[in-house]
Design a protein that fits this description.
Helices cover about 10% and strands about 15% of the residues. The chain is α+β, with helices and mostly antiparallel strands. A two-stranded antiparallel ribbon has the order 1-2.
Length: about 60
Amino acid sequence: MAVPKRRTSRARQGKRRSHQHLKPIQVQYCPECSNPVLPHRVCSNCGYYQKREVVAMEAEEK
């Protein structure tokens, strides 16, 4: 059975794990209603995507 001859140092361990970090969520703002929207998704507030209305949003009736 293979056993390491030396202990792996923290620096070497950190170099190996340097690509495993989390990236922050990229948030964009809708040009129509200025609400935060994830990229490449339709705005859930107004229904616009790339300055075009894709989903017709129903007006709230009270």
